[in-house]
């Protein structure tokens, strides 16, 4: 190649290893409104010249780039890592980049200072003449106070009669330095290109408590609306509704997932679509479009959001099967393929053919479905099995919906390989289900939570901890009973800023359809249950939600410190934000009392001896840096939630 | 945005986290001719469909992409990591990428197998009809033996009279599977784009032994040429010459770096340029252009390369100062700035102004200098202080020189911040100087070598270990004497595939110009010494070079395992390639005997008890997995170099 043709030589400055960034900027890192974003990069050039660097950042639809100064943070080692920060105030797609330039005045200042200090009695008039050039150039750009400093210095340095000692004094002065830093031209400005994307969500995307219910078990949408004040009073932020659409009749499943439905069996709400309509419709027995709007308005009035469980599949009676057979998979013999995972078959459900040549109209139809419910007031979507639909579809549809309403939140209901779950988080899902349900020992819990809180996932994968779901009743709860429910509630609600309860959890429901199964006996998926807010665990749940709202340490993910407990049945950890330290100790054994000594490390920054308040009982204890005696028993307290006073 | 307009839906396959790759492909990873390149990537899609994947690779100027199959390596965990390999046979810029597609037949085969095995007595004629479609499509592309299998299967599956049991047998057959894998169309092929660059050098870029000398101390180029057979006989690959250009007279330095030269002082060979010429010229007292060519030819004849120390600076008498004043930095008063690092000043040297508006002609001039010497036969360049010249300059000039001669090797003489040294390696320098000289304790050596051998640097930063240079005589050698020289020789030549000796090392030269200085007394940089190949360490050096050539384990970097020695004065390690294990134990204490027990771990794969040969003495010892007694003493053996027999 010929030497690059430019008026200026190619930049001598390198900007590398920016943070935070995902896959080189292919995906956006996530933050929430009000966050201070800490950024850093390796910034260096050849030679010994001094650099200056800034982070430049731009709000969504912002016309102007703002900038904050960066500072080196490893000066004692390499001096190449620069760090700074900025605050994000509005939701949407932010961008940031780094810009660096050669600081000619600082370089000159440093050289001159060393020469003057060496006191070699050499002629430094050449050096002074260099200073004059730099000062004159800056003066053309200077304003305000700084202008005076520069003008004065230029005058002294240019004055053939002024003694050198005076010239050095002036040239090396701190006020002049500040003025020159402000007004000197940025030489060889180099920017990281392209800028790094940063997706900012509303705070509830990070910090939320969900209450999940089947509307039909509560008497329909109007009845649910009537319970909103109570549910809000329990401290929940999101009222999460299982699908409320019409349900197919053909191949309908019976109670306990039997293949043949009885005449009164309501069918699975995931077998969506009937003569009454598909994903745009409300099941006539549950209510009307207006009822959905009313429920949303009431929820918003009580500070809550409504979440809809959205499943992208169709019953055998879904109108789209006849209106759009091209969206479904047909066999060579013309029959449609129902869902299956051999040898299991889901005869009541048809999957969409995402490879159809008509994929564009299929994508558009789903966008219409989402926007229909967004318009009704539903801003949260728990998406069923997103990992069996194309990644590009999700990336597209989430972006399209956010153009209409940036407050919409998507929770990925995906339990599959890590890489796939992570990809869904990267491409736009706001929150994600996790493996939490299956992590019941101290070792498992710490290993897994470290992955979420301290790995790269912390930049984009927001866990939402559900101790149970309508599909997952873990053996730990089956065999552990109420103390196990308490332990899991405390873990979910203190470790993760977002967590959720599926109604029935507060009643300690724990009978599986058969021993060894994770399915519930008499699952609400296949029959109508009569639900009420009468569970004995509700007072504790209300208190947990209060504690979460009062303690900022419980509203963040990556602030956990595991504490040694000398007993593997005790899981002890501190969560800490500036000014707020919460210490949790959970007895993982639902059967027996467990004794241990929890070690508080000095780095938590407590006093050597300090007082903690048990936020469940109000009791006060003296704790100390070092070992602290703890005894927890299933017939008394299953967990301590201690606030450092 | 509207839904993307394409005939096919966007790819459902993701290819991420490819390895090896540097900075997302901005820089090339490095290998040498004959290497097998192990590659891997996360490859996955949504859903449950099975994938196939290949690595595609292309030789320099290759027209055709070749491909090798990839296989999953974490099937038991996530099943998303795929790995494979290919071999690089020619020097130059290779490229590789990954390609994956949905394996429709394997997916079909798996579903059908599970249904047949479940033996549910269901009608599978729909499934069979799907198979017919896949077989018919593949048949159109099939050739050879596979064609027969497919044709037969198509016949049986289409035959209304054939029993289902026979159809299943045929459809699930392994031969048919292989044929379908070969001939089925690749569905939804997705490639990583752009491809990843891979720079392949000749083997000597990785594995080399250098002998460094000042031609003037050996009687000039003709006299050096006469010693080539001896130096080659010592096992050196590269004869490295300090600059042989004319030296400036103005401001010439005297002996021991004094400011005023005496009438007979020859000056520093780094103060390049005089009335006799600049970087294109040969100092008349050292020889002629033809002598350089002769020396190169003789060296090549003896299997050696010649390296030139190239310093991009000029004496006060360099012709370019008058021919091209625009390439130098002028003060406002018109005077040129000489090199300085206040309070130090290098009045005999002028730096180039790399920010000159005439940078293009400056770059071109340096390219002409390099190509001049390449044409004379010099293929190795030890570049002086590359870290004070622009990064883009190096990236450009190395690439330009490689277009003319891909065998040229560049060694970066840079001792500065890690980030800068790494950048030079990334942008094209073939080998690099290191901090080796300053790593003299067990802890320092292990920590630093792990950085080189096991960090990302292993992909691009090839260390060249010099125990001393004309500028660096470490206190360890000053105070340790001959046993210290032996220890450093063994460490340099066994740990790093490339190492070098500066003449005088074999004579145990270790007198500093003053206590605490790393400069030599009577440095050859400022005076002419009379050198000869008479150092008492030469026999050991010859043997070390022999051992290195005979043992492939010593020709690679990232194959070291540190061995516990129960004594910090003993540094023990194994280096291992298939079929070749070398165990080194070095006594770091140059004054006293040290005793320890070196632990051989089971993972080295030796027999429980095995025989080692001391390659320096020929003695045989029984060693074992577990602890082995070692005693090393400065008055006997300072190090063991043991080969596992």
From TrEMBL, chains A, B:
Enzyme Commission number(s): 2.4.99.16
Assembly description: Homodimer.
Domain Glycosyl hydrolase family 13 catalytic: 208-548
Binding site for alpha-maltose 1-phosphate: 253, 348, 385, 525-526
Site positions for Transition state stabilizer: 471
GO molecular function: hexosyltransferase activity; hydrolase activity, hydrolyzing O-glycosyl compounds
Protein name (database record): Alpha-1,4-glucan:maltose-1-phosphate maltosyltransferase
Record's catalysed reaction(s): alpha-maltose 1-phosphate + [(1->4)-alpha-D-glucosyl](n) = [(1->4)-alpha-D-glucosyl](n+2) + phosphate
Gene, per the UniProt record: glgE
Record bears the keyword Transmembrane: no
Gene3D superfamilies with a match to the protein in the record: Glycosidases, Golgi alpha-mannosidase II, Immunoglobulins, Phosphotransferase system, lactose/cellobiose-type IIA subunit
Source taxon at top rank: Bacteria
Catalytic-site annotation from UniProt: 384, 413
SMART domains per record: Aamy
Family listed: Belongs to the glycosyl hydrolase 13 family. GlgE subfamily.
Keyword set, alphabetical order: Carbohydrate metabolism, Glycosyltransferase, Transferase
GO biological process, any: alpha-glucan biosynthetic process
InterPro entries: GH (IPR017853), GH13_cat_dom (IPR006047), GlgE (IPR026585), GLGE_C (IPR049171), GlgE_dom_N/S (IPR021828), Glyco_hydro_b (IPR013780), Ig-like_fold (IPR013783)
Organism expressing this protein natively: Solirubrobacter ginsenosidimutans
